[in-house]
Design goal:
about 170 residues, Four Helix Bundle (Hemerythrin (Met), subunit A), about 75% helix
Length: about 170
């Protein structure tokens, strides 16, 4: 049953991730954001299969909750109009996109081959949520605070972009 769920969640993750970028149904960015929510939820299912329940919960709460709401907020505030359906893609951008895909695929294959990963590795399930919290707020408190400031600056940028000129 676990293998079947793995194939279902991984297939959904790949399919929805593809539909985020190349959505054949509509060119509306809100639809892509909704497919991103499905991608993130499928990845959370994969984390549950790995018995990483904390990562699955964080994946759903932080990414599917807060980040997607922020994306939708920016999309709605910037009043992004639906692109015309009969717009022809630029040949040059398609060539560069394909070239980028080949380079990234080559780098990924090289990293996998040179990593030395084989089937004898077993996952190590150590640590709890309490241990992770203690480690986060003792050893990594400065990066945690920097991330909070970056999120605050991003939120202030969204507020400034959403204000209309009063003149």
């Amino acid at each position: 049953m676990q293998e079947l769920l793995f194939y279902i969640f991984s297939g959904l993750t790949l399919l929805c991730g593809f539909l985020v970028v190349a959505n054949p149904f509509t060119r509306n960015p809100v639809t892509s954001a909704m497919f991103l929510v499905l991608t993130i939820a499928s990845m959370a299912g994969l984390f549950v299969l790995l018995h990483a329940f904390f990562l699955a919960a964080v994946q759903v709460m932080v990414y599917a909750g807060a980040v997607i709401v922020l994306f939708l907020f920016v999309i709605m505030l910037l009043d992004v109009r639906e692109v015309e359906k009969h717009q022809h893609p630029q040949i040059l951008s398609g060539v560069f996109g394909l070239l980028g895909l080949l380079v990234i695929s080559g780098m990924l294959i090289k990293a996998i081959v040179s990593s030395g990963i084989d089937n004898t590795l077993q996952p190590q399930l150590e640590g709890t949520t309490k241990a992770l919290g203690i480690k986060l707020f003792t050893d990594y408190v400065l990066p945690f605070e920097i991330m909070g400031v970056l999120l605050l600056v991003g939120m202030m940028g969204v507020v400034l972009l959403s204000k209309k000129k009063l003149r």
